[in-house]
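Same chain as my last thread, 140 residues:
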Amino acid sequence: MTDHTTPQQADRRSGVGRILIAIYIVLALAATGRSVYQLIEKFEQAPLAYSLSAVAAVVYIFATIALIAPGPIWYSVAKWTIGFELTGVIVVGMLSLVMPEIFAHPTVWSYFGAGYLFVPLVMPIWGLLWLRKHPEKVAR
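reply #2:
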């Protein structure tokens, strides 16, 4: 079996990149487990909050896969999903501060991820910086 990985791709998934991916795996599992439980057992109590937690879980899953998978398409998916994640954390974080009444229960991104020790705020910043440092070479 031949490895078709370029040095830039290998760098993206090695060293500190492995830690980034490991944390995304943990976030994906935690957010997915939490949101599945909330959607099944508690949805009627806070439909917006629990739906946003499910969206966060899906974003973490796609970001994790995209960080691991080689190639320019997955690199682009990683940038878009992590960018969406950062936007979600900022928007939901701001809304949870200025309009707390719209969130009957907290989400993964409420208060900028305070319930997760602000990891949801730090991870997309780190992820985007990591991707910028390790750009995907596009064959022409």
